[in-house]
Structures are given as C-alpha cells and as structure tokens.
Amino acid sequence: MSDGQLETNVLFGTPTWRCPVPDMHRFHGEIKTQLRELWRQGYFQRHGSGYGYQTTEELFTPVNLEKIEYLRVLKKAFVDACTRILAHRHGHSKNMPFDVYCVQGWVLIQTNESWVDGPWHHHHPATLSGCYYVQIPPTRDPTEGLLMFQRSEPTNVFCENMAAVRPIEGCLTIFPSYLMHRPMPTPTANDWRIGICMDAFVHWHKKSEDPLRSFEDLDAYEAARKNSLAGR
Ligand SMILES: [Fe+2]
Fold first, then answer.
1. Residue 104's pLDDT band (boundaries 50, 70, 90)?
2. Distance (Å) from CA 121 to ligand 1 centroid
3. Distance between Cα 183 and ligand 1 center (Å)
4. How confident is the model at residue 232 (pLDDT cuts 50, 70, 90)?
5. Degrees (nearest 5) of the Cα angle 131, 193, 54?
6. Which domains does the chain have, with CATH numbers?
7. Is the pTM of this model over 0.70?
8. How much distance in Å is there from the Cα of 210 to the middle of ligand 1?
9. pLDDT score of 215 more than 90
10. Which of 15, 21, 87, 188 makes a 20 to 30 Å CA pair with 167?
C-alpha cells in the first residue's frame, strides 16, 4: 500500500508503516534542548520509568497538549496515520466504525552506555504503536539502533524469524502493537538516539454496521460514530 506519504513494509506477512512528518522538523532543536535540561535536572534515572531512560507515558495530557505545540502536531500526525492504516483493515472489523479514543506517548532516550540493551517487548493491548525519531546518531556499525521485530509464530527453519526496520530521523515508524520488538543498542554513537513512542487504543463500534467506505464523507462517518455511542 502506498497511501500518500504512508509507506508499507511487510515483515513476515505483517504490515508495518513509515511516514515522514515534515511539520515536526522545526521542533527538533526545542525538543533536544528541553530533554537536555530535564537530564541536567536529574529527571532521567536508569530504569526510572520503564526500561532505560524514559519519561512517563503521560506526554499527551490535556495540559501538555494545550501548552506544547509539537505534542499537538505529533499526536495529530500519529492519529491521522493510524486512521489511514485502519481504513484498510480486514475481517469482521471492516463493518465496524472505529475510533482512536486514546493515545499514550513517552520519550525514550538511548545512550551508548554498555548496560543499555533494549529487551524484547510488545505493546498489547494497544492496537497500533509508533515511534517518531527526533535524533538518530551515526554509528560505526549500521546495525546499531535498528528496530528489530520478531515473528509471532514459533521459530522454524522455513521462514525468517526476525526482521529489522531502520529508523529515520523525522519519520514515524508504525507497527501492530502485538509484534515483539526491541531497539538495538548504540554502543558507538556519540549522541542520544531519541524517539517519541506512542500507543493508539481503538474502539470498535458494533452498533453501527455500515462499513466505513460507505460513508459519503468524514462528517457523515463522525455523525454515525457519535450515534453508535449514544445511550451507553
Ligand atoms: Fe516498544
């Protein structure tokens, strides 16, 4: 699928996506300055909030969204991309209007310290997860800092069991949240690898059975979606 700037990369039969977010580029300097200041103040502690150096998952609070423009821009880009991705869904869900009702976000800073070795994990029960890369430092070995994925089925000799996606500065990588993944360490980097990670949680509205594609426009879809929630 090539939907606008959304590029699909299929790994062992499972789609993942990448899209550039040019509206975010102008904020990179501001984000890095803020993170350096937080670091200086001692906010980032080893495993202080999840693995490695992370903020809490509460980036998109109403107060933060009101105050911080880049969070509004990034959240919108992520939700827009997820909405375009989900327009191509399969099976029974084709007949269900959906709603990305919650987005979590957090910053992950990866340093070159020897203990930083991202463990395998997934983001279930979110539906789609993504990472926007603010900074990808150069490394001597090109495999450093890759985002690795593991096939969900048992390992066997007939299929590839692992695949890598190369993070690109200024781009969003999105993948199904159930996929096991890990960022490769960056021992030879001389700066931080900075990602803003996000999870999208989706409601499927069973009351309305009209497929999304049958709506004339987004307003008609939105009206049906609201109607499907009425009386809950
Ligand atoms: Fe993750």
1. very high
2. 6
3. 8
4. low
5. 70
6. 2-28+38-229 (2.60.120.620)
7. yes
8. 34
9. no
10. 87
